[in-house]
Recover the amino acids of this structure.
């Protein structure tokens, strides 16, 4: 697929873990990926891996909890590709401790990255998608957004909120041929938190990326609005 015709996806938290796997998978499917993360060094590695022959990755180091970065990300995408087809809201943080120990500052940090940043960035890309009458907003939520657990008062609250926001957003933008897709993984074999389970039997980042590709590849008349991902064999 040529750089003139290939679709453009913005992926946040693209430097490692689930975000890196999603970026890799989209590139392999012919997308150009605007990769956003705070780590410039890790993004440079992503560029070096994929930018052979033609540019498949544009790295934009940014802290998306700063609202002002949203317009810079969108401008970079439009300057490079002239279009935005997919936004993957993947970046997130988890701080897991009992509610009595969770500080307001820790809750605010999770809220700003897990919920506020997706809202601000989505609001920035929607005018282009509405004008094109085409697009997809993919939100990486969590089964913690459906299931409560001890130590998850802050994190689960942000993921419940993300799902509620996404389901309402879907009803608002589907008339413009824009799909809103929410992926809810359970335990994934990453370094995201100390409570994550590890091992080959646990869902891998590549499995989450495969779910994203599955939803995006559905016929345009069909929207896969939400996917739950669990290990087939949990232990």
């Amino acid at each position: 697929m040529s750089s003139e015709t290939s679709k453009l996806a913005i992926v946040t938290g693209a430097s490692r873990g689930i975000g890196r796997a999603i970026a890799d998978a989209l590139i392999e499917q012919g997308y150009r990926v605007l990769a956003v993360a705070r780590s410039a060094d890790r993004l440079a590695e992503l560029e070096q891996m994929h930018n052979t022959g033609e540019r498949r990755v544009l790295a934009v180091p940014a802290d998306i909890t700063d609202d002002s970065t949203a317009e810079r990300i969108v401008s970079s995408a439009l300057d490079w590709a002239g279009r935005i087809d997919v936004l993957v809201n993947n970046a997130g943080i988890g701080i897991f401790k009992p509610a009595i120990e969770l500080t307001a500052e820790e809750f605010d940090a999770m809220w700003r990255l897990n919920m506020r940043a997706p809202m601000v960035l989505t609001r920035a890309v929607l005018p282009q998608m509405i004008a094109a009458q085409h697009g997809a907003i993919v939100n990486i939520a969590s089964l913690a957004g459906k299931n409560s657990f001890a130590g998850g008062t802050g994190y689960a609250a942000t993921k419940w909120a993300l799902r509620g926001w996404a389901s309402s957003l879907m009803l608002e933008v589907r008339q413009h041929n824009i799909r809103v897709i929410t992926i809810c993984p359970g335990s994934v074999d990453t370094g995201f938190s100390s409570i994550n389970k590890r091992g080959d039997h646990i869902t891998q980042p590549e499995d989450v990326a495969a779910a994203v590709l599955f939803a995006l590849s559905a016929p345009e008349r069909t929207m896969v609005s939400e996917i739950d991902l669990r290990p087939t064999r949990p232990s």
